[in-house]
Design brief:
The protein is α+β, with helices and mostly antiparallel strands and about 260 residues long. It is about 55% helix and about 15% strand. The protein folds into two domains: about 140 residues, Beta Polymerase, domain 2, CATH 3.30.460.10; about 110 residues, Four Helix Bundle (Hemerythrin (Met), subunit A) (Up-down Bundle), CATH 1.20.120. It has a six-stranded mixed sheet with strand order 3-4-5-2-1-6, sandwiched between helices.
Amino acid sequence: MQRKVEAISRQLSGALAAWPEVQAVVLGEAAESGVLDPYFAIPLDVYHRGELPAGAERRARFGSPAAFEAVPGQLQDRFLLGELPVRVRYQEAGRFEELLGRIEACHWVFHDSSPGLFYRLAHGQPLFVRSAWLEECRKRLLGLPEHYWTVLLEGSQRAFSYALTDMQASSLRDDALFFNLSLAHFLRATASFLFALNRRFEPGPRLVSRHLVGLERLPDGFAGRFESLLREGPELDRGRKCEIAGLLARSALAMV
């Protein structure tokens, strides 16, 4: 079946290579899992310059695949090809160049962009490259200034501190919904903090748990505390989870 995945990926990259606007096509990590994995997909990041064809024309150029959907509000296509799910995300090359320029000039701010964009660019498998653009961007990613990681650390630290305060308040108010929303925010911000601490780009949400446990630098007792925040049980009520989250936050901050 993986041969079928490879064949479809090559078929799609060949079709995309015929578009003069396309600079590079990169295959994402989700294609490496087995097709029976619920997270499986064939994700393609397409880096381009200039205006792309409209959704109907893009569908035609892909051979009119089944269940084609041009995602509203995003330049992204989803469809089925050979019964396998495909996601195509279109990324303006100039956007990355501008973002990298701001970071290199230390003018970048925390809310500018998700590190997941950089993760896919740095770690995806190139299927097509028209020029040296992809290689040059990857080299620039290897040399990002320390300011970038400092901004990520400070922003994610603020985020998990606010989330912990919200967890404590919602626990006292017995507000189950807001507690769980705050807990989710705390877990995500803590993960972001640890990726930045290790100078690693954060992957997309479906890949976070896989890569988080493999980071070189983690707080003492991290695995057990993080797992406890994910579990449910009579011994893990909201008050106890607030205590565990507080311990985790303090141990993470002690590593800076």
